[in-house]
Amino acid sequence: MKAQDGLYIDGAWRPAESEDVIDVVNPADEQVIGRVPAGGALDVDTAVRAARAALPAWAATPPAERAARLTALRDALAGRRDEIAGTVTAELGSPLAFSRSVHAAVPIAVVGSYAELAATHAFEEKVGNSTVLHEPIGVVGAITPWNYPLHQIVAKVAPALAAGCTIVLKPAEDTPLTARLFAGAVHEAGLPAGVFNLVTGLGPVAGQALAEHPGVDLVSFTGSTAVGRQIGAVAGAAVKKVALELGGKSANVILPDADLARAVHVGVANVMSNSGQTCSAWTRMLVHRERYAEAVELAATAAAKYGDRIGPVVSAKQQARVRGYIEKGIAEGARLVAGGPEAPREKGYFVSPTVFADVTPEMTIAQEEIFGPVLSILRYDDEEDALRIANGTVYGLAGAVWAADEARAVAFARRMDTGQVDINGGRFNPLAPFGGYKQSGVGRELGAHGLAEYLQTKSLQF
After folding, report:
1. Is 279 one of the catalytic residues?
2. Which of 91, 173, 212, 245 does the annotation list as catalytic?
3. Are strands 354-357 and 374-380 parallel, antiparallel or unpaired?
4. What is the mean pLDDT of each run of 10 residues along the chain (462 residues)?
5. Which position among 91, 165, 173, 279 bears the catalytic label?
6. pTM of the model as a whole
7. How many angstroms separate the CA atoms of 102 and 109, rounded?
8. Active site residue 173
């Protein structure tokens, strides 16, 4: 077990005000693998003060120099790639191959993309007789989740640094060891003291203190819609900007002329990826009634092949939550065709890859975010019916459309109330804006749109 002492504040590791700690548990074997300080309001205040003190100089740093620091950060993370992958596997439970290819590799690429944006973005522009300035919004309070522990950090910290903001990060208490590795990379990259600060702690304590702090200009939060509402209310009372990336219940719409086998195969893989702990997962598969039986059979067969190929969910609490949803699906009349609520192993927080057929739109499992390896398959009569079902939740984060006729798929996607849609299995693009409609959030991450969240505008008239 690793004993981790201290918080990273003002360019150095320093003791927390309290001796309270958070145990970090490996969800695969339920063993404690580390512990970190449970920072509190005093620690958050110290970190915010350090960020405020560092803000004027960092905001005035030329974009080319900020780009150079981001390039150095990318290189420092790349040098830790194996350690990052191993740490994510240990504290999240992700299979090592997935940790290497996604949890470690994607954030490194995202940091590199912001190094390029910092160097090329037009922080000033002419509009008629005005010069419009795009200036850093100030001190950012970043609160990140456990499901993609490094990616979610990078998606907030990298654009904030590129914009000229300073940051206080409060990572999820389930996966704080990855955040500590990130802080080490920041230190190696040579960022000035106070530009980046890390306070580990509990959400209701450190997270709330950060969201409420008067020295924070923007709160960027990724997590549940329920907590997002609370943060929005706190920020609204202070007229403080928020960026919220919240829940999802994304629809995977397979139109009648699609390659059904491929669409189902990719759709099941999408839901099982990261043990189903992905906010943008296509957890509702919509299939035309004439092809429904075939799709159900294909999905059940595909899910059964995962078995031991997916890791555990992150915690005992999450395991109980997912199993509870599976039991509710059965109770409400959905037909279980793969998996089930029984734990597949005696040790570890594992959940069987699960597929439900005969799911109707009003069922709980078709409306609420489960955040586990659970797929619901719904039937529709025609495209209008499919659109009604796809848009029929409070969420609107992501989705997919499949059709032999690409123009038909695009036309359908244009009418979906969601922030991102993959057409016929379109590849992930780290430069494309990511974020939601409706209760899936406010604002965007990644690429130029992600950078814009951390900038405010000023116009000078001549």
Report:
1. yes
2. 245
3. parallel
4. 75 95 97 96 98 98 98 98 98 97 98 98 97 98 98 98 98 98 98 98 97 98 96 93 97 98 98 97 98 98 90 97 98 98 94 98 98 98 98 98 98 98 96 97 97 98 98
5. 279
6. 0.96
7. 10
8. no
